[in-house]
Design a protein that fits this description.
With 410 residues, this protein is an alpha+beta fold. The chain folds into three domains: 4-133, Acyl-CoA dehydrogenase/oxidase, N-terminal domain (Butyryl-Coa Dehydrogenase, subunit A, domain 1, Orthogonal Bundle); 136-233, Butyryl-CoA Dehydrogenase, subunit A, domain 2, CATH 2.40.110.10; 240-400, Up-down Bundle (Butyryl-CoA Dehydrogenase, subunit A, domain 3), CATH 1.20.140.10. It contains twelve helices and eight strands. It has helices at residues 4-12, 21-39, 42-48, 53-61, 80-91, 95-113, 120-129, 243-272, 289-320, 328-360, 372-381, 387-400; strands spanning 134-137, 145-150, 153-163, 171-177, 187-193, 199-202, 216-225, 230-233. The strands form two sheets. Strands 1-4-5-8 form a four-stranded mixed sheet, covered by helices on one side. Strand 2 and strand 3 form a beta hairpin. It is globular. It starts with a helix and ends in a 10-residue tail after the last helix. Residues 250-385 form the Acyl-CoA dehydrogenase C-terminal domain. It holds the Pfam family Acyl-CoA_dh_N. Residues 30-130 form the Acyl-CoA dehydrogenase/oxidase N-terminal domain. GO terms for molecular function: 3-methylbutanoyl-CoA dehydrogenase activity; flavin adenine dinucleotide binding. Keywords: Oxidoreductase.
Length: 410
């Protein structure tokens, strides 16, 4: 770096440029090996509905949790495209663990997005050396938290539901608004270690899908928050607010991976069936023209989502590398591109995971087959925020150029 502008940008964003072929090949291979391990007992683990401690260790040992961290501090030094591909690959076999990893990437990215410049190195070193998996407790539509000044720190009380990774996360990222004092009204980012005094993890996550995402309820009983636990405070700076397009992009890749996984399992089931329907002109089930037509439609639509996701992943890398040079216009363009992906990935994955049963026949509905896992996962997570509002967001921008106000959903 020789210019002042380049120095400033580098100080703001640890990510520069785009992933090359060697990087993508390396991390794709790592993710595929982890996915193969997860696939061996994905259905059994889903039904056991236990906290995924073993799965989180698998992610750490493979190096996936430090993939995005700066190489100068011991991290993988990779790009967002590599991280998002890893999420997509894991989602093909175990979308719960893919969710854990994707949320970890976004939560830990707040070191670069939110933490003061002179504190980032210590946060990175603690996270990398401790092999932290970052969970969160940030559900914005469940704001029942009070953060009140207490000496040089704060006291945290209240309850948060849908806290992904909280059951196994080494670090728990918490959002709360300061109630009074010099920081009154500011949106704080607090990071507490697993087992911190006064933090109660309620192991009650028993939903239709994403059962191993450890998205528990967390209760805070007069929790002491020291200055060292405060990552930073939110602002309306475009760079700092990339966390929301980032998590929505994780969703798009998660949903695409689920659709791809459903298609792959359905293909194996279809090819294994010996006989076609008695009215069919074909001898083998896979040769039936209606079966082939259905697969043709679902495969083509999924491929279109993949092309859009690949483009959005690269756009995110290009945008976040701008650092201080990032403008509101850059962020808005990225937001709309990712919202478009959210619409088509959500609708396509739900349809694919549902209609593959038509292509595989009644025997595929047996509990032992587990084809339902893909549908249960996408049906559950796609409810995170209403996709209809993403459609309105994209449509309004197309017609009038308007961009939605920045929030933890836009």
């Amino acid at each position: 770096m020789t210019s002042t502008a380049s120095d400033t940008r580098a100080a703001r964003s640890p990510w520069h440029g785009e992933a090359d072929a060697a990087e993508l090949e390396r991390w794709t291979g790592v993710a595929e090996r982890v996915a193969a391990t997860l696939q061996q007992d994905a259905l059994e683990r889903d039904r056991a509905n236990a906290q995924p401690f073993g799965e989180s260790r698998l992610l750490k040992e493979a190096g996936l949790t430090t993939l995005l961290d700066p190489a100068e501090y011991g991290g993988g030094g990779a790009h967002w495209e590599s991280a998002l591909l890893a999420v997509r690959i894991l989602a093909r076999t175990d979308a719960s663990i893919a969710q854990l990893l994707g949320y970890h990437y976004i939560n830990s990215a707040n070191i670069a997005l939110i933490a003061p410049a002179d504190e980032r190195e210590q946060w990175y070193r603690r996270s990398i050396e401790g092999r932290w998996l970052w969970g969160d407790s940030v559900n914005p539509v469940d704001p029942d938290l009070a953060l009140t000044p207490d000496g040089d720190g704060f006291r945290l009380t209240g309850t948060k539901r849908f806290s992904t990774g909280s059951g196994v996360g080494d670090a728990l990222l918490i959002n709360a608004v300061v109630s009074e004092g010099p920081h009154a009204g500011r949106f704080a980012f607090v990071v507490l270690p697993f087992g911190h005094e006064g933090v109660e993890l309620v192991d009650g996550w028993d939903f239709l899908g994403q059962r191993l995402s450890a998205s528990n309820t967390v209760r805070y009983h007069d929790v002491r928050v020291d200055p060292e636990h405060v990552l930073g405070f939110a602002s309306d700076d475009p760079f700092e607010t990339l966390v929301t397009p980032g998590i929505q992009l994780v969703f798009g890749n998660l949903y695409l991976g689920i659709a791809q996984g459903a298609l792959e399992q359905a293909r194996r089931l279809t090819n294994a069936r010996p006989n076609s329907w008695f009215l069919s002109p074909a001898e083998l089930y896979r040769d039936d023209p209606f079966v082939r037509r259905l697969y043709g439609e679902l495969v083509a639509r999924t491929a279109a989502v993949e092309a859009l996701a690949d483009r959005a992943n690269r756009s995110f890398d290009r945008t976040i590398s701008l650092g201080h040079e990032l403008t509101a216009e850059h962020r808005a363009a990225l937001e709309i591109e990712i919202a478009t992906l959210k619409v088509v990935s959500s609708d396509t994955a739900i349809d694919v995971a549902n209609r593959v049963f038509e292509a595989t026949g009644s025997s595929s509905a047996a509990s032992s087959v587990g084809l339902d896992l893909h549908w249960r996962n996408i049906r559950t997570h796609s409810l995170h925020d209403p996709v209809d509002y993403k459609k309105l967001e994209v449509g309004a921008h197309f017609l009038t150029g308007v961009v939605q106000p920045i929030s933890l959903y836009t």
